Amino acid sequence: MRKITALLSLFLVTTAIAQEQPMKINLIANGKTLTATLSNGTAAKDFYQMLPLELELSDYAGEEKISYLPRKLNTSREPDGVAAAVGDINYYAPWGNVAIFYKPHGKARGLVHLGKFDGDFSAILGNGKTKVRLEKTK
Fold first, then answer.
1. pLDDT for the residue 40
2. Least confident of 1-15, 34-48, 86-100
3. Dist. CA 101–CA 99, nearest whole Å
4. Once rounded to an integer, what is the mean pLDDT over residues 116-131?
5. Do residues 115 and 36 lie in contact, with contact meaning Cβ atoms separated by under 8 Å?
6. With contact defined as beta carbons under 8 Å apart, do 25 and 134 qualify?
7. CA 42/CA 47 separation, integer angstroms
């Protein structure tokens, strides 16, 4: 019985540690690899499971780059809205699109935080559409 209890405890600790590992992604655009860290929310985990993805980002409202995802994300345990900071990777649930903010934006209903770039993300900020590949880091 002690061995079973010890094995169960080890399994639970290992599982908890694995769940605490950050979800890191790469975004490849214009020959540059950008890194980002996703949050641990329901929608971010669902997004992470979709990877790899190839998307085409386009400018929206002079403050964000957007692209529609192949399917809607699970937002069942997410707040009803958030504000966006520069470098945030978000999901706009009503439309089903990912939104990368290059200017701050006030709280918007339906906006869900997915993560944030770890550093410079200017490789996606040119005029026009930008093709990108999103993948889990190795």
1. 96
2. 1-15
3. 6
4. 94
5. yes
6. yes
7. 9
**β-strand partners of 100:** 65, 89
- Token pair, residue 53, equals 């993805």
CA geometry: angle 121, 135, 92, nearest 5 deg: 65
Which residues have C-beta within 8 Å of that of residue 109, sequence separation ≥ 6?
80, 81
Prediction pTM value: 0.85
- What is the chain's length? 138
Q: Phi and psi of 74, rounded to 5°? A: -75, 115
Residue type, 18: A
Per-residue pLDDT, 20: 65
Helix H or strand E encompassing 71: none
Q: Decide if 44 contacts 114 (C-beta within 8 A).
A: yes
What is the rounded distance in angstroms from the CA atom of residue 84 to the CA atom of residue 109? 11
Cβ atoms 76, 44 nearer than 8 A:
no
Instruction: Establish how many alpha carbons lie within 13 A of residue 117's alpha carbon, considering only the half-sphere containing its beta carbon.
Output: 20
